[in-house]
Write a structure and sequence with these properties.
three-stranded antiparallel beta sheet; 121 residues; 5 strands; single chain
């Protein structure tokens, strides 16, 4: 059964040092006997998590009674942090426990900086 949960045989399924090449210890799990269920609960394997810092600064300067200039500066993914994806959890895969992808969506964007100047009259 491809979606069968394994049996956890070690108390701690994590290696001493986690990195993208070894996020989960493969020796901590074994396939259950045919026709039985594994003892590992659902959603028990946690990925590395994500870090993203977005910053925006705005300043409005009054020129005359009805005229202003607005300066805006924005930064997305300011530290330009790499967000790895989730580890491979298929026991029949030779890459079990390794992280082979990056996070999907806006979490994998590079650092983006933008500035704007607006004159309101």
């Amino acid at each position: 059964m491809p979606a069968q949960r394994p049996n956890q045989v070690l108390p701690n399924p994590l290696p001493a040092v986690q990195n993208v090449n070894l996020w989960i210890n493969p020796q901590a799990f074994v396939a259950p006997a045919p026709g039985t269920y594994g003892n590992l609960g659902i959603n028990n394997i946690l990925g590395p998590g994500n870090t993203r810092i977005d910053v925006g600064l705005t300043r409005t300067f009054r020129i005359r009674e009805n005229q202003t200039i607005q300066f805006r500066w924005e930064a997305f993914n300011l530290p330009n942090h790499f967000n790895p994806g989730n580890p491979v959890t298929a026991m029949n895969n030779t890459n079990f426990g390794k992280i082979l992808s990056t996070a999907a969506g806006p979490l994998c964007d590079p650092r983006i900086l933008q500035a704007a100047l607006k004159y309101v009259f």
